[in-house]
Amino acid sequence: METKYNKAYRAVYSLTAHIVFVTKYRKPILTDELLTELETIFTSILNTRGGSLEEFNGESDHVHLLVSYKPSVSVSNLIANLKATSSKTMWRNHPEYLKKQYWGKRVLWSGSYFVSSCGGVTIEQLRKYVEQQDRPLPNKSSP
């Protein structure tokens, strides 16, 4: 599989992260309709920040996002933005449903999250590549 690289001022990059959000109290509240809406919301947020949603899916109590992002974006800030904006949007679009689920508390996601960096090659492949670099031999006249 060929890795797609992005270009920015003074940078060539390919940054991808796997993110998991769990509903508050692990409540099984996400329906197919809500998951479809969340996919649209996450896509919009990432597009405005110069990233993209590569893959998305979920179950009734959690979602998985595979996102690409710019090197200028802090992953923790990106995650905070994804969680806050999606929660506010879902509350605006489905207030009655969410009120029943969360007793009127304006929550959607658990305070925690999972994130893992991922790329086009394994750590072992990178290790071999770095080991095989043509390092210059020591020169007695150099400092």
Provide an overview of this structure.
The strands form two sheets. Strands 4-5-3-6 form a four-stranded antiparallel sheet, covered by helices on one side. The protein has a two-stranded antiparallel ribbon with strand order 1-2. It is of the alpha+beta class and 143 residues long. The chain starts with 5 loop residues before the first strand and ends in a 12-residue tail after the last helix. The protein has one domain: 2-Layer Sandwich (Alpha-Beta Plaits), CATH 3.30.70.1290. Helix 1 crosses helix 2 (75-93). The protein has helices spanning 32-48, 75-93, 95-102, 123-131; strands at 6-8, 11-13, 16-22, 52-59, 62-68, 114-118.
Summarize the structure in short.
This protein is of the alpha+beta class. 37% of the residues lie in helices and 23% in strands. The protein has a single domain, classed as Alpha-Beta Plaits, CATH 3.30.70.1290.
Question: Mind telling me the CATH superfamily name?
Answer: Transposase IS200-like
How many β strands by DSSP? Answer: 6
Low-confidence stretches: none
Cα-to-Cα separation, first versus last residue: 43 Å
What proportion of the residues form beta strands (DSSP E)?
15-25%
Rg value: 20 Å
Chain-averaged pLDDT: 92
Instruction: Return the structural class.
Output: alpha+beta
Identify the overall geometry. Answer: elongated
Instruction: Please tell me the total number of domains.
Output: 1
Strand arrangement, major sheet? 4-5-3-6
Count of individual helical segments:
4
Order of helices and strands: EEEHEEHHEH
CATH topology: Alpha-Beta Plaits
